[in-house]
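Board notes, transcribed. Complex of a protein with nicotinamide-adenine-dinucleotide.
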Amino acid sequence: MKQPRQNGIGSDAKAILSDPLRNKGTAFTEEERDRLGLHGLLPNHVSTMDGQIKRRIAVLRAFSTPFEKYAFLRDLQDTNETLFYALLARHRSELLPLVYTPTVGEACVRFSEIYRRARGLFLSYPLKGRLFEILAALPNDDVEVICVTDGERILGLGDQGAGGMGIPIGKLSLYTDCAGIDPARTMPILLDTGTDNEELLDNPLYVGWRHHRVRGAEYDAFVEEFVEAVRKRWPRALLQWEDFAGPNAVTLLGRYRCRLPTFNDDIQGTAATALAAILAAERLAGIDLIERNIVVFGAGAAGCGIAELILGELVSRGLTREAALARIHAVDRDGLLIEHVNVVTASQARIARPHTEADAWLTQQQAPSLIETIERARPAVLIGTSGQFEAFDKPVIEAMTRHNDRPIILPLSNPAIRAEASAADVQTWSNGRAIIGTGSPSHGSNGAVTQVNNVYIFPGIGLGAVVSGAETITEAMFAEAAKCLASLVPDEDGDRLFPSTDHLAEIADSIALAVCRVAERDLGAIPPAGGWEDAIAGHRWAPVYRDPVSP
Ligand code: NAD
């Protein structure tokens, strides 16, 4: 290691201070300041991490808008990552809505406004042919988890182009906070294949590739080059697809799920979270799912994924696939999905009502609307994954309440401005009888409502995959993850479906264990000598300051 220069302001000292993973800010001790030549580069005060946390949270609380708080947190992450994670761990429930949904949505929309420092990888289409070369040049040899988006369907906010990078950054922050993945071993990636968002293309601040989206064979070839570069550079890394537009999300998952450890969080993570919520709500409502109908409103990537996992659960309880399918009613923009009538995608075809039922459902060649479907099917569960604000209006909720003592209502679309209903409205219109879960954090009259969000699932899936060394991520892992989450009874009384987000780290450990056991049972993963629990605990990176000169 190079010695600091005599005046104490050496280039190594500057390098340490500008490396977010080694910087301690005012917490460098006198001894470290002497040894590393930091005197003069830092103010006089020597703080503890505890003192830094108290100061940072006070400063954060003084900002008036969530977006300002988000920008402050991103700055902290880019300057002192250890402190960022210590702050997040101490104040998780308060900070989660800032680093993740809903504020991360606004952060993606306004990404170019606050772009300051490099984080993650922007692989733009003009770099095609050079992707492996770019990955190979990175110093990060031990990447364990990659989160990638092309920014085309950011939450319910549509095409945000390069601004979509906010999502992989946010998701991987939660991998570290909840699942204890070392931040140096995470890699956020934005595949910048252009944007069809005209406002962004016209915006002089936009930092992405100013070009309409590349599609078809050229897009496929670019993604293929990316996946092969990842496999070559980081052969064991888990690749999580995030916020791709529906058709690409389904196609890419189908193409790559057997070639590397990979999953699509919008399809599979959401499905597991929703199934967990339904299983927990089933217990609260005192019903048996196999006797009751379920309506899924919005049959895109998330809705179809949820329907498939519910079908799997019903089949595992003894129903035939046909009988299980009779329980599912998927409604999209043209009403109840009926085979050969209004089905658009292959995923929809798998969950549509069979064409033999068409005559029974169609009125003057029209498929029934949401409310007509509810009146006919009398479902116990209503799930929203349509991104249609206030689609669950008063008549819809009243119809659900007429047919159930405890209707289960899950408006899952994010952010809140895309939610099918607010928790407060559902509570009012159901006279307090509904069991509710919402995609973004929300409150009803009895306090916080369960946030049915895949943050409950993906950190545990990823940790389990990394620890078990699973070469593929299977549907059984998501089904077991859902059962595991549903079995974790919340501390609070009332209608909460999951423990609060304060417990996300313990939840990630429990789900990781379930995933490791599936990997052992189905994929032949060999448990380490001390058992899976020890391996999971031992893998956890903790936000404590380390010697900044160690690698
Ligand atoms: P998607 O675009 O694949 O699917 C949306 C579906 O809604 C499409 O099939 C579309 O045709 C349908 N739709 C649009 N307008 C409609 C209308 N008026 N009536 C009925 N259906 C309509 O998107 P996706 O990935 O499935 O995500 C959908 C929503 O779910 C987003 O808002 C997203 O934020 C949310 N989501 C929530 C979570 C969570 O954890 N809570 C996870 C993933 C996705």
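Residues 265-285 form the longest helix (21 residues). The chain is about 45% helix and 10% strand.
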